[in-house]
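ugh ok fine here u go
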Amino acid sequence: MWQRLLPRKNRFLGIDVGAHEVKAAEVRIIEGAPEVVALRRVPSPPGAWTEQVDEDALVEALKQVAGPHLKEAITCIGGEQVVARTVRLPRMSEKEMEAAARFEVEKFVPTPVDQLIVRYVPLERPVSEEALSTPRAAAARAREAQGPPGGQEEGQSVLLLAVPAATVFRYHSIFSRAGLVVTAVDHHAFALWRLFGRATAGTLALADVGAETSHLVVVRDEEIKFVRLLPIGGSALTRRLMDAYGVELAEAEEMKREAAVGVDGDQGSPGAIGAGDFLIAGLSEIAREIRRSLEFCASQDGLTVERLVLSGGSSKQRGLAEFLQADLGVTVEVGVPQLEFGPGVVFDPAFAVAVGLALREVAS
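structure:
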């Protein structure tokens, strides 16, 4: 009863603590529709999501990006702290599913399960009678009639998530010291899905290319089917330039921003051309990781990706989309969310996860 008497929240804050930057997105509900009203970023302290992180520096960074209006935030666990795995499990009660999830996690996580926070998320959403008449639902029913792909056992697709409890408690404490209350700890996959995957037909992949790691999500007819963390990001390109030219980090980052990768006509300065040659090897590593994951997804789940949508700070690398399109043989584009942006606010692909987090509590 009391909740009905309280005013409904109309402003939401998503904070993405990355290895390179801490990014915040503020979303406000205006006339029933979400609008991104602010995007803020500051450099991450070294060692984010590791035991070596400077907690005091991270507290100050969070204070800077939080802004003056909101004290509640939605965030996600970064780096390799979270283990995510899609599995098929028989349909069972909620209590049985909790036990089954912990049993499955023990198979692929070396940490004792009693030291983990384990969650499961059913990925196949129940469909209303009205929705059953849509062409998309008809296509899904036709696929079901053919049987599970790739000899897959019957049941339901479930995303298992496991993270050390100590990590979650530590970051709750860090946010609290910054004057923030963490109202939800989400996952990158769901943030990306809200932004680019929940209103699309067919099979597409979402790749958020960060500094140290990248997140790959495969969506078919609005449902998440596959999730994988790729152990590579844009910093691999920077390190190649540092080693090849003997330059410091800042100069290598500038060279990377200027360089193309030999797939378009605008090659820039001679220095950029040479840097582009070195970047090709690094980009090939990113392409190889994505290709291996898509091939595994196709062999296990029978999913053939038709389109790849890029986001993340490293997705802005000149020529990356064209390079991946040529290498993977699918249409590749940098994602642009179908959202309203307030005056002076311009979407940057680096903020994709932060915006997706802020949309978590927004009614769809």
